[in-house]
Amino acid sequence: NMNVPFIDLQAQYQRYKSEIDIAIHDVLDTSQYIMGPKVKEFEDNLAKFSGAKHAIGCASGTDALLLALMAIGIETGDEIITTPFTFIASSEVISLLGAIPVFVDIEQDTYNINADLIEAKITNKTKAIMPVSLYGQTADMDKINAIGKKHNLIVIEDAAQSFGATYKGKQSCNLSDFGCTSFFPSKPLGCYGDGGALFTSNDELAEKARIILAHGSKKRYEHTVIGINGRLDAIQAAILNVKLKYFSDEVQKRNLIGQKYIDLLSDKGIKTPIIKEGRTSVYAQFTLQVDNRQELIDKLKDNGIPTVIHYPKPLHLQECYSFLNYSLGDFPISEKAAKEVFSLPMSPFLSEEHQEIITQLI
Prior knowledge:
This protein is an alpha/beta fold. The protein has 10 helices and 13 strands.
């Protein structure tokens, strides 16, 4: 019986342990835990990696999304177009500001928002479009940006799962007005706690976001706007700085492992990830769609192989959104995916042997 980790965080830590331990101790030795040189250094490296002019470290991917919305002045009653097939954070931040998430169904092949359905949902209350780059691949950003431009809407890429992926040669997070990512431990670039970042090449929006994330203050005890406590911890920044050095190499490994999974499963009559031309995926998840999901999950579990369902219930059917009055049947592609998708173990350190055993069992 195998014991395959769903994401092998321990193998990764052991590989970079000496450098990570030194980086953590550097912070402990200076006792500068909030902001400071480690955070600044990480932000500079992030900006360089992404190609965006500004990278702003923050406390989580959720806070990154919240900061983007606050920076553009989202208010009660505003509408934001997004997808129902994602983690709750995407719509949660919209709701926290009193705004309304307006859902649009997904594409069958990529699981990302169907750009062709967006325009029909635009009203005079719409202020932004928030596509989610699900499972590690970006949405159809050119089409979405064009709609944003035409209707004067801000485009915020929820790139919590796609940092390191590219779209037509540009990095995810540097494709629209704002990019937001997460450094939750299981993400392609993960820290050892919560963390995230906000990306933009707009100086004014970057400045606003920086002020908001520090309680609305530029100068201590002088508050120009209402803000949040959304800063990235220096220890997390130090850890991420080490991991960022090896990240491109890990992205390459993820691509090879993702492609190997696809090859191994190609003749099994199972829907494997479809990566669109001009795009790459970081395979934050390696997700299959089948009509006998539970059978496969049980079979894998009996053989010591863990699986996770991303996501079993679309957002429009969540109890917290019952007030929006959506019902079953409103977003059929999202609803079908929720019943049929499940994710296999995936990390840059997944062995070929394990991959072969997993795919043989399937």
